[in-house]
Structure formats: C-alpha cells, structure tokens
Amino acid sequence: MSADRDRYLADMGLPIWVLRQRQALDPTAVKNNKKTWSQLIATVDQCTLCSLHRSRTQTVFGVGRRDADLLIIGEAPGAEEDRKGEPFVGRAGQLLDAMLASVGFIRNDVYIANILKCRPPNNRDPRNEEATACTPYLEQQLSLIQPKVILALGRIAAQWLLQCDTPIGRLRGSVNQFGVQEIPLIVSYHPAYLLRSPLAKAKSWEDLILVKQALRKEK
Asked: What letter would DSSP give residue 16?
C-alpha cells in the first residue's frame, strides 16, 4: 500500500507524508495552515483515481476541528452525505452527535472523516481498490490533524485501518495501535448499525468511555 500511496501522491503533485512520532505542535499553526488544507480539499474534489467519481454528486472530505484530539473515521458517505458533502449527517449523524454528547463532546470538538471520499453506488461496501486510492488522502488528514486518539466506526473502517479481518465484536472493547506513531485506536459500531440494532447502543457507550480514558492518558 505504501508504494501505491507514494505513486498517487506524486501523480497528484502533492508531497509524500510520513506519519511521524507524535510531537508537540502549535495547534494554531496547524489549524491555520489554510494553503495545505485547501490544496488537499481541491485535489480530493477533482479526484478521478477510481470509478466512484463517475457516480458521485460531490466528494465528502471531512469536517471538524483541524487540531482535534479525537479523529472519527467511518467507511464511506451515504446518500445524504453525498448530497450535502458532509460526513455523518441524517439519522446516523444525529445519533453520532447524541452519542458524543453523552460523554461530553460536541461535533465541533472532533474531526470526522471516512475511508472513502465518494459514495459507493447503492451504499455497497467499499472495494479494496477504492479504499487504496483514497487512503493517501486520509493519511494526509491524519498528518495535518495529529490526533491523539482515533475512533473507528464500523467493521469496514476498523478492519481497513488495522489491516485485519478480525470480527468487530473482538476488535472493540480494547485499545488498538495505529500506524508507526502507535496512535490509540478504539473500535465501535457504526451509528447506522445502531439504528437497526438499538440494543448495541450500550456497548457503543462503553466504547466512548474508553475513548475518554485514552484521551486522558494522552494529555
């Protein structure tokens, strides 16, 4: 995947980002790095690296604080996200907002993104080649944000980030490590799944408590 990433970034004329050991950054400098953010957003908007660009209404880059301690990553935009250009809106987004509020977060406190920046037709699962094409964008978002903790929502996002096929029930409930930085990564259920299986909400709340605990350790 690293070679593909480097080739994609070179083709796009963007610098190759390598996740560094976590270091103290000036949050204001990162947040105000408008040129880098705007360049990346523009590149994503024009992306044609996979076939999804043919069916999208618009790309869904991400939203939130650019110096957030918590980065939330889902799998891909749905129909409402494709229409509005923002991740986790509609009923699933409202539930996510309520879940965050239950442990003291508001949406503007965190950064929210997806593995894919374009909606797969009929909300099907992302294909490997699509996730591979989009991963360099997510890696650059990670490099800019420098989050202290990552929350992966749903089986597909969790397995892609951790490069495993372990069932989500076994991935959640513990703190995993992501990347060379070994960023704490916690897995929970996707809000869309919780809408279908409300009894799992209690487990998701436990996962959010684990997120809070991990953030306290990283302070």
From this structure: P
Residue-range domains of the chain with CATH:
2-16+24-218 (3.40.470.10)
Angstrom distances, CA of residue 197 to CA of 55, 94, 122, 168: 30, 16, 21, 14
Q: Assign 195 to helix, strand or coil.
A: helix
- Residue 102: both structure tokens together: 């239950």
First to last CA, the chain: 31
Radius of gyration of the chain measured on its C-alpha atoms: 16
pLDDT digits 0-9 by tens, 185-218: 999 999 999 999 999 999 999 999 999 999 999 8
- DSSP, collapsed to helix, strand or coil, labels residue 131 as helix
Query: What number of CA atoms fall less than 13 Å from residue 25's CA on the CB side?
Result: 21
Quote the distance between the C-alpha of residue 42 and its chain's center. 18
Task: Return the residue matching tokens 């809070």.
Answer: 212
Distances (CA, A) of 127 to 44, 122, 173: 18, 13, 27
Q: How many whole angstroms separate alpha carbon 16 and alpha carbon 30?
A: 17
pTM: 0.85
The neighbour count for residue 158, using CB atoms within 10 Å, is 27
Task: Using the structure block, give the residue that is written with the tokens 């409930």.
Answer: 173
Strand 111-114, strand 70-74: pairing: parallel
User: 10 Å Cβ neighbour count for 183?
Assistant: 21
